[in-house]
Design goal:
Layout: H1 3-23, H2 26-49, H3 59-75, H4 81-103, H5 108-128, H6 130-133, E1 139-140, H7 156-178, H8 181-191, H9 193-198, H10 203-229, E2 231-232, H11 239-252, H12 259-273, H13 282-295, H14 299-332
Antiparallel strand pairs: 1-2
Helix pairs in contact: 2-7, 2-10, 2-11, 2-12, 3-4, 3-5, 3-10, 4-10, 8-10, 11-12, 11-14
Protein name: Branched-chain amino acid ABC transporter permease
Main location: membrane
Subcellular location: Cell membrane
């Protein structure tokens, strides 16, 4: 990581910390907190699709599993928030493990179609199992996070900082994974799974590991959403949610560490600015997203990275040429 990138990250971190103090507007703080929750979910999708090359369309289903697990454990089982949060992640990971065992035997568009069906099944289970999930009535009265000593999370600002903490934790975990041997293994599988197998990489084991991690991150996002909104319904497991995540990822930059943050912030800000268009907002988003995918398939962050790499190459090329020139003159002489 370059010095400029480190400074940029530090500046963004400081801005995120002082945002509630600067804004003093509950609506903006609420929107930013939701944005942080979406970012966590997008990071889970990015780890699987961006670094392993497997696009899961069941991501909204695991988001809903995390939300409903926390909601049911705290509302119906009356469990304390923090053990319930931990258990909801375990439940999401276990379900993700069994789904991954089957789904990862397929590849490319077959994998996407299979996970799309899994996501829809999860949605139907939540919608139709009235005795457990309350069906279309939704689950009401999900409590706020329990106090940790003197720390209370009843206010909007305190919840904002709690979600920000989890977002930073996920970013740190992603950074460590991507820059580790495991991260290089995932990228090798994305580039060529057959080649990865020939050099001795256990592709199924690594794919299953990253699939489970991805689902756990999605479950964390869903659990934080449930504790923040305090009410959840079957719609949080709909296919529209996973396409929102995918839009944030494609705009920001798939397979990049900062892509989920950039894409989510940009789309959320644009959505707020275009609220007057209501349902016609997609008339703006649709063509912009299409053009972005055509000309910048790695999103905004990917385009910036490519531009900086080309610029560095163009700067170093005359130096390399100048070093070679005396040797060429000697040969000509």
């Amino acid at each position: 990581m370059s010095k400029v990138q480190k400074i940029a990250i530090l500046v963004l971190f400081l801005l995120a910390i002082i945002f509630p103090i600067i804004s003093q507007n509950d609506y903006f703080i609420h929107v930013m907190t939701l944005s942080f929750i979406w970012m966590i979910g997008v990071y889970g999708l990015n780890l699987l699709a961006g670094y392993t090359g497997y696009l899961s369309l069941a991501h909204a289903g695991f988001f809903a599993i995390g939300a409903y697990s926390l909601g049911l454990l705290t509302v119906k089982a009356e469990m304390n928030f923090w053990p319930a949060l931990l258990l909801s992640l375990v439940i999401t990971g276990v379900i993700g493990f069994f789904v991954g065992l089957i789904s990862l035997r397929t590849k490319e568009h077959f994998f996407a179609i299979y996970t799309l069906c899994v996501g829809y099944i999860i949605y139907l289970v939540i919608d139709k199992w009235d005795s457990l999930t309350e069906g279309v009535r939704g689950l009401i009265g999900i409590p706020a996070p329990a106090n940790i000593g003197p720390l209370s999370f009843e206010t909007l600002q305190s919840h904002y900082y709690l979600v920000l903490f989890f977002l930073l934790l996920v970013v740190l975990i992603m950074y460590r994974i991507v820059h580790s041997l495991s991260g290089r293994t995932y990228i090798a599988i994305r580039n060529s799974e057959d080649l990865a197998q020939t050099i001795g990489i256990s592709t199924m084991k690594n794919k299953l590991t990253v699939f489970v991690i991805s689902t756990v991150i999605a479950g964390l996002s869903g659990a934080l959403y449930a504790s923040f909104v305090r009410f959840i319904g079957p719609d949080i497991g709909s296919i529209a949610i996973v396409f929102d995540f995918l839009t944030y990822l494609l705009v920001g930059g798939i397979g990049t560490l900062s892509g989920p943050i950039v894409g989510t912030i940009l789309i959320v800000v644009l959505s707020q600015r275009l609220q007057f268009l209501q349902d016609y907002r997609m008339l703006v988003f649709g063509p912009v997203l299409t053009l972005l995918i055509i000309f910048y398939p790695r999103g905004i962050v990917g385009a910036v990275v490519n531009w900086t790499q080309k610029r560095k190459a163009s700067v170093h090329q005359p130096i390399i040429r100048a070093k070679k020139l005396p040797e060429e003159q000697v040969k000509e002489g």
